[in-house]
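Anyone? Bumping this.
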Amino acid sequence: MAERRLHKVLSAVVKIKPGEEVLAVLIFFYFFLITAPFGIVKSLRDANFLEDLKAENLPYAYLSAILIAVAVSFHAKLQTRFSRRSLLMSTLVFFILTDLVFWALFSRPHWDWLALIYWMWANLFVVALTTQFWFLVNDVFNPREAKRLIGFFGSGGILGGVAGNLLPGFLAKPETSHRLLLVSAAFLGLCLVVVGLTFAWLRKNEDRYAAAPKREPKPGGKESRHVGLGDSFRSVASDSYLRLMAWIVLVTGIVSTFIDWQSKSLIQSDPVAQQNYASFFGRFNAGILVFAFLFQLVMTSRFINRFGIRTGLLIYPVIILLCSVGIGVFPLLGFAIAIKGSDKALSYSINQSSRELLYIPVLPALKYRAKVFIDMFLNRFSKAVGGVILLGLIYLIQRPPFTAMGLSPLVWVSFVSGAFVLIWILLNLRISRAYVREVKTQLAKKWERADEVVAGTMDVDAAKLVVDAIESRTESATLFALHLYELERQNKLTPEIRGLLALKPLGGSSPGTRPLFEYDASPWVSDFEESGVPAEMDKEIREILALDSYQKVIGDYAGQVIEGKTAHAETRKMELSKAIGLMNGRSAIAERLDDLLADDSSKVFQYAAESAGRFKKKVHVPLLFMKFADPRTCEDARSALERYGATIVGALSDYLEDSGESGLVREQAASLLARVGDQEAADALLDALGRGETALKNVLIDALDRVRSEVPEIAFKDEVVRDRFETEIRNLGPPRTPSDLLPVFKLLGLIYDHEDVFRAYQNLLKGTKDSVAYAIELLDHTVSQDVKDRLFPILEGLGGRGGRGTPP
Amino acid sequence: MVINKREKNNIVIFDIEGEIRRSDITDVTLHQLVKEQLEVGKKQILLNFDKVDFIDSFGVGEILASYISTHNLGGKLKLARISKKLYLIFQVTMLTKVLEIHDEEDAALQSFFKE
C-alpha cells in the first residue's frame, strides 16, 4: 500500500516502474547526503583559499590534484580488498572523522597553507564519495533503467548541493564559518544510515538486483572485479573507444581548471565577495545548483531522449566556448558568473548524464576497470594538467614579446581556454559516432534466417541429387547412371559421395562385400570412378542427343513410354523425364515434357519438374502451379519454379493478385517472388501488402524480409511500410512475448538497417533486463521518432527477466 | 577404321576395328555396309565392337542410322562387346532402352535364334 502511494508520488516526476520505488528513493537520498556536505566543504574550501593564499596561488591548488590522483590510486587498491558495502561505509566514517579534525584545526590560529591541505582533502572527499555513488548506481541499474532514472538521482545530488551551499550562504560569518564542518559531519552520519538501509534492501531483493552484498565476491578472491589503477589504465589504453573517453575527460578537466581560475580571479577582485567569501560562494554555488536542478529535473532526460547523446555532449562545450570568448573580450564579473554557472549547471546535468551513457556500450567488466582510471584518476589528474598549463601560460605571458601586446592574463587564459574547448568539441563529435558503432558491436548478430543458414552451410541441390541417386539405385540402372552423370558434371561426385553411393566395394577385394548396385553395373560404373566424365565424353553425349537419328529413335521410344506401352511404365517415364532435361528444350522429345508434367505419378513429376526448371518455358508454369495442390509434388513444383528466376515475376504477381486462387498457391507465389528477390518482385510483394491482404499478411511480410536480408540494396516504399507498421501496432494488443513483435520488426527491417533491427530483436528475445535495455538503446539510434513513440512503450512493457550477471 | 564382314547361321556379323570417328571417314561407312546387306535380304545383323577403341557421336549416328534402316525393314540389329565407356554413354542417352546390347558375341547370336 505504502509502495503504491510512493509510486504515485514518484510517477509525477519520474518514469518509475513498480518495484523500483524504495531503491530509487534511497539512492536519491544517498546522493543528496553526500552532495549536501560537499556544498559546505567546497564553499569553505574556496573561501579559505582566497582569504589565506589568494587567487594567484590557485594553480598550485590545481597541481595538488596529482596528490589526489595518488590518493585515488590508493582508494582503487582498497577496492580490491573490500566489498562494496564495507568500502562505502568505511569511507564515510573516514570523512566524518577527518571532517572533525579540520573543524578542530580551523577553530584556532592556523598556518596559511592549511587552506591548501584542506583544498586537497575537500577534493578527495568529492571524488571518493561521488565515484562510489556512481559505482553503486552502475551495480544495481541496467543502462536503460539508469537512463530513465538518472534525472531523478541527479536531482537528489543537485538538491543536496543547493541545501549544502545555502547553509554557508546564510549562516557563514568570516570568523566562525568553520563551525559548519560539524553540520557536514552530521550529513555524512545520516548518509551512513541510508547506505546501510540501501544494502539491506538490496539483500532482501537480490533476485531482482544483483548487487546485493550476499552475492558479492569475496574480497581479494579470484572472482573479484575490483581493479587497481595499473589494470584500469591498461584496459583503457587497449580500447580505442575508452581511449577517446579518456581524452575527453582530460580536456574537460583542463578546461574546467581554466574556468575555475578565470571565475575566481574575477570574484577575488569583487568588493562584495571580499566581505565574506564563504557566504558569497555558498550563495553563488546554491544559485548555480538551483538552475542546474531545474534543468536536470525538467530537461536532461527529455533533452537526451529527444536530441540524443551527440547534442547532449555538444551543448556544454559550445556554451563554455561562448562564455570564454566573452571573458576574453569583456572581462566582467557577469561573464565569470555565467561561465562558472554554465560549467557547474551543465556538468552536473547534461554532461554527467551523457558521460554516464557513454559507458553503456562498454562491457560491464571493462567498464568497472576503466572507471577507476578515467573517473577516479584522470578526472582529477586532468585538473593537475590544467594547473601545469596554467602556470606555464601565466609565466609565458608575463614575458616579452607577450607583455608588449598589453593583454591581461585573464584575456590570454580565456583565449587558450577557447582553443581547448574547440578540441573538446571535436573529440565529442568523434565519440558520439563511436558510441553508436560500439552499441552495435555490443549486440552481435547471433542468428540468421534458418533458410539462409541451411543454404550457406550446405548445397541443398547437391544433397537432393545425392539422395535421389541413392534412391534410383534400386529403381533403374539408367536412372542411376543419369544421376551419376549429373553429379559428375557438377563436380559433386567427391570421394565421400562415391563412398555414400557405394560405388566401390567396401574393403576392396574382400569377398564379403559387393557393389550395392543391384543391376551389377560396376563394369561401366568404374569408368566414372576412374576418370569421371571427361570433357570429350560430355561433348559426345551432347552431340548424340542432338542427332536426328537419335531424336527419331528415342522420339519413337518416348511415344511408347508416354502411352504406357512399355513394361515398368512408371520407371521408364522417370528415366525419360530425367533424360529430357539433358536435351535441347526446343527438341521434339522435349515437347513431350508437358505429358510427363501432367502425369499422376509424383515420382515421374519429380524428374519432369526438374527438367522443366532447366528449360524455363512459360508454358510449363501453369502445369507446375497445378501441382501445388498435392503435398507429394508441391516441393518439386516449387523447386522447378525457383529455377525460373526473374523470368516469371509477372506470372507470379498474377497468381498473387488472383483472389480466386487458393491460399496455398498465392502463398507459394509470394514465397517464389521472395526467392527472385529483385526490385520488381519486391514491389509486387509490397503492393500486395499495401492492398491489405490480411490472410497473406504474415507470408508477405516474411517474403519481404527475405528479400531485404538477401538483397539489401532493394528499396521499399516507405509510406506503404509505415502504414502497415501502424496497422500492426494497432492490431497488436498486449503482446505476451517478444516473438509477437516479429512481424513489426520485419517491417522495420525493410526501411531501417536490417541487421541493427534484428540485433535489437534478438536481444528482446533473450529477455534479460540488460538485453532488452540494449535492444531499446540500439533502436533508439536506428529508428525515427514517430516509430519510437509507437514502439518503445510496448517494448518497455515487455520488461525482462533477471539481472545483470555477476555483481561488482 | 576397318570393317570385316562374316556370316554365321545367316546372321551377318560386322567386326569393326580401330576408331569410329568423323575425322576418320572411310570410303564405305558402316551404315552403307548395313544397307547393302539389307538390300540383299540379310535382315539379322550383329555389330561386333570387340576391337573398337573409340566411337564418337558420328559413330553412334552410324549405329543409329543402321538401326533405323534395319528396323524399318523389319530386321534386327544387335551390338556385342562394346566398351564400358560406350555402354555408359548409351545408358545416359537411354539408347540401352532401344538398342540390344550383349556382352559376348555368342550370347548375341543365341538371342537371334530365340526370336
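Late reply, but here is one note on the structure posted above: Chain A has a mean pLDDT of 80.
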